[in-house]
C-alpha cells in the first residue's frame, strides 16, 4: 500500500511539473514568434530535446535499437512523432489568433480527449466521480469563455473561431499521440520513446526550418527560445514519466489546471514586464470558470476516492438525511 501511495505521489508530482511548464510555455512562445517562424522554433525545440536525451541514453547504454529493427513498433513511433509534430505547429499557429490564456483553455480539450480515448481504447476505469468531475471541468471551460460568447472582449470573432478550429486540431493530434505513447510504454521506457519521437520530429521539420534566424535574436529572445527548448525536454519528459506511475485519466485530469496557471503567470508577467506581456483581462464569470476547471480536474483525478459509496453515506448521515 505504501509503495502504491509513493507511486501515486511521484506521478502527481511529475504531472504537476508538466502543468507548470506548459502553463508558462505560451507566454514565451508568443514573444519568440514575433522574431522567428513557427517551423524554426519547433525544429529547435525538438533538436534540443533529441540532443540531450541522446546523451542521457548513451550514458546508460539504452538506445532503443530494437525499435529500428521492428517494423510494427517503428510505424507506431513514426505515427506518434507525426501527431506530436502536427500538435506543435497547430498550437503555434493558433497563437497568432488568440491570447495565450485562451489557447491554454482550449488545449484542455486534449487531455479530455485523451481521457475518453483511454477509456474507450485502453479500457481504463472511469468512475462516477470522474464523470462528475468531467462535467464540472467542461462547465468551467464554458464559463471561462463567456466573454467570447457575449462578444465583450475586443477579441475578433473571426480570429477566435479560426483559432478555435486550429486548436481543436492540435488537441485531437495531441490526444492521439499520448494514447500511442501510453501503449508503447509496454515495450520501452519513457525516455526511449521520447528519444525516437524527438529525433523523428526534428528530421520532419529540418527542411522547413531556417536555423540561421537565431542570429537575428537579441539576448532576451535567445533566453526565451532556450526556455522553450528546455521546456520541451522537461515537460514531455515528466509527462511521459508520469504515465508510468498513474493511469492516463488521472494524468490528463491533473494537466487540466494548466490554463489556470497560464492566467496566473500572465498576470504576474504583465506586472513585472508590462511592455512585453499583456494579460487577458477576465470578468468574474471567467475566474469562476477557471476555478471550476481546477476543481473538476481534481475531482476527475480523485473521483473514486471522493465520491465513493462510503463517503456519500457519511455525508448523508452528517447532513441528517439518514434516520
Assign the structural class, choosing from mainly alpha, mainly beta, alpha/beta, alpha+beta, or little secondary structure.
mainly alpha
Show unreliable segments.
Answer: none
> What share of residues is helical?
over 70%
Mean pLDDT: 81
Distance N to C terminus = 35 Å
Q: How many strands in all?
A: 0
How many discrete domains? 1
Q: How large a portion of the residues is in β-strands, by DSSP E?
A: under 5%
Would you list the SSEs in sequence order as H and E?
HHHHHHHHHHHHHHH
From the alpha carbons, calculate the radius of gyration and give it in angstroms. 20 Å
Put simply, the count of helices is 15
What is the approximate shape?
A: globular
Largest sheet: none
